[in-house]
Amino acid sequence: MSISANNPNRTSWLYVNKHSDFPIQNIPFGVFLTREDVITIGTRIGDTAIDLGALHQLGYFDGIPLTDDIFLQDTLNDFIADGRQTWRAVRNRIADIFDANNETLKNNTKHKEIVCFRLDEIEMQMPVLVGDYTDFYASKEHATNVGTMFRGEDNALMPNWLHLPVGYHGRSSSIITTHIPINRPQGQTLPEGASKPIFGPSKLVDFELEMAFITTDANDFGEPIPIEEAEDYIFGLVLFNDWSARDIQKWEYVPLGPFLGKSFASTISPWIVTLDALEPFRVESPKQNPKPLPYLRTKGKKSFDINLEAAIKPKGAKETVVSRTNFKYMYWNMAQQLTHHTSNGCPVNSGDMMGSGTISGPTEDSYGSMLELTWKGEKPIKMKDGTTRKFINDHDTVIMRAYCENDDVRIGFGQVKNELLPVFNPKKKK
Amino acid sequence: MSISANNPNRTSWLYVNKHSDFPIQNIPFGVFLTREDVITIGTRIGDTAIDLGALHQLGYFDGIPLTDDIFLQDTLNDFIADGRQTWRAVRNRIADIFDANNETLKNNTKHKEIVCFRLDEIEMQMPVLVGDYTDFYASKEHATNVGTMFRGEDNALMPNWLHLPVGYHGRSSSIITTHIPINRPQGQTLPEGASKPIFGPSKLVDFELEMAFITTDANDFGEPIPIEEAEDYIFGLVLFNDWSARDIQKWEYVPLGPFLGKSFASTISPWIVTLDALEPFRVESPKQNPKPLPYLRTKGKKSFDINLEAAIKPKGAKETVVSRTNFKYMYWNMAQQLTHHTSNGCPVNSGDMMGSGTISGPTEDSYGSMLELTWKGEKPIKMKDGTTRKFINDHDTVIMRAYCENDDVRIGFGQVKNELLPVFNPKKKK
């Protein structure tokens, strides 16, 4: 099935600002609460949110094999489980319904009132129930930076790093979406020079600028996925902020890896941009040397040219962009990550999420975490409001954005934006 | 509410062998497929499986606030979310229904036919949908053994180990229950003396003898659980075999922890024994020195005296018990684990599972893994059939059992029993 939804010449009868992340060529998927307080699955064109549950009930998806309630759900998991042919058919159909040359819905005021919402009428929800979440560590620049800081330049990359996409299991229950505030975590840390740990608020809360991909049901228990098939199981991508408490992480992580230094919160952008929508932005991955083992060898363009930025907005002040980087810098691509993950037979299910790991580019302003940008706090960043930051302060809001752009079209992810609140106070419980 | 179900003097009108793990004082919870191919929630007394969905429909739980379909589900998650008062009321009622002095169901042949099953008529299923699974590393003997092997005696325990229950996030999707065979995993390993890794079957597949506890909805996003309340959120325990591929683990695990060396399979016993049923077997934990930080200090008996054993059964031969140990050896107790886990605000939900980590005792025959029992393969174990084992061979079945016993009663967990098959062959796909 061709991806007719990607036709760059198409315009919509819905208004779309030329700088919008969501032209009719994007058609991402999300879950939102409507003005009637109903949860539905939807998409977005320009600044209009579209209720796919309502569209389906009104018959606009006739001819596509979909269960009656596929869009009347709290999560996209079941829709994602339907597989790529269905995703593609639905995206193509949505493009047709909202095409400037199609007057069916455009001229049906009653239907439009049921289907279309202004953004201020809806509230975005978590798009999927994440069964399992894995975070990779796939940016060579990031791994080198962190390795250099903690082990010195000569031992920066561990011996395994160039041979496999290093990853670890993360916590699903604390993945939330945009606009939900996060309390500064408490935990055990070992203060500089101390011999005993203390318990208290983390002093080094950081962001990690990542992308994450969301999978469909990929394999049965025990069955690896060959590398040629891996991309078939990737539904789409979101922005991912892997919030990190560096001091908690440092004390706890040897020998079993990051735990409470990460599991207090991870935040994602609410619209899942499909792999189909990103097709025009495929690029070559960085050259891999040594050549990966045969089960990890990919051909062709397996990376994507996605511009990324992270900003910090102090309370009541303007934001300062602190990092600009690109998803294409990733050393290990998503197909390699998914194939490696299932190489031992580990099952991957619909709604599972895999983070890229912090995405750092080659230049100092393209690093994807405050740890790297300020080099462990040694080089504070100057903010527009005159203050400086080594890490994230209480009441700072961290904002991440991502978009692809060529001469024809811009496909964006919107943003993920969350405020860091002070430590949780049980007496002030909401 | 008193736990009348624990009355040691009670007997049942159902036959219970005196060595049974499942006297009327146990009343565990599980999920099974009935002879009519229906999935239901049930319990077990002696060798009789009891359909709680049917009992509820027949009115035997009248007066206990339960939704109509609470036992007609694929998993125990919703029942567990109902909380301890409900679990206790249901267990007490089941004890009454099957009490030798209660003739209501006993004399109702028609009802009995609907409610009671022989074990060979049912097939046990996963009792919960595990949202998140965490594995701790809470046995000092195990951590010391592994540390000594890999880092030498002087650096055996990492500096953090005595201050916090070290843990890491594990993979939920590959947790399965008893009797499901497992394929030997493939993966990357670095052969002894080699400079480059290879990809192929793991040569060092091991078991880890653990217990795991299953939680109810414990806390909201951002809210820590005080140590005094932690046990309120523990529903019950199962046996847990944390299958491990030592060679894959060794090559991959630095710096982010175990990943594919574990995620090919973890297996649990199918009946969840409630914390209530284990009350008579509370014991003091090992003395903790240094004293834990205040947020981790517990009072009273927070450990449980649970006898554990692991056996290996080669194909067509008798089993050999290779380890006998006890849950009470754990240095960090479950309350400490759960409180530590939520100390940063990480939410814990109904059905989440937390493994103890390998449970090793003080003597060489009480170690909980082949890695330790054979000391990295240096001291092979002699089997009853004359063969020896360093690790697990293809077609070996690993069997774990657990039980508590005092003068009055024996409360057991049954077993978890899984065969290791050769590497998955796509041409022979079932």
From TrEMBL, chains A, B:
Substrate binds at residues 137, 151, 249, 253, 358. Its cofactor is Ca(2+); Mg(2+). Pathway: Amino-acid degradation; L-phenylalanine degradation; acetoacetate and fumarate from L-phenylalanine: step 6/6. It comes from Pontimicrobium aquaticum. One of its GO terms (biological process) is L-tyrosine catabolic process. One of its GO terms (molecular function) is fumarylacetoacetase activity. Keywords: Calcium, Hydrolase, Magnesium, Metal-binding, Phenylalanine catabolism, Tyrosine catabolism. This is fumarylacetoacetase. Its EC number is 3.7.1.2. Ca(2+) binds at residues 135, 208, 210, 242. The gene is fahA. The active site is at residue 142. Residues 25-127 form the Fumarylacetoacetase N-terminal domain. PANTHER family: FUMARYLACETOACETASE. Residues 133-419 form the Fumarylacetoacetase-like C-terminal domain. Transmembrane segments: none annotated. Mg(2+) binds at residues 242, 262, 266. Belongs to the FAH family. The keyword Protease does not apply. InterPro entries: Fumarylacetoacetase, Fumarylacetoacetase-like_C, Fumarylacetoacetase_C_sf, Fumarylacetoacetase_N, Fumarylacetoacetase_N_sf.
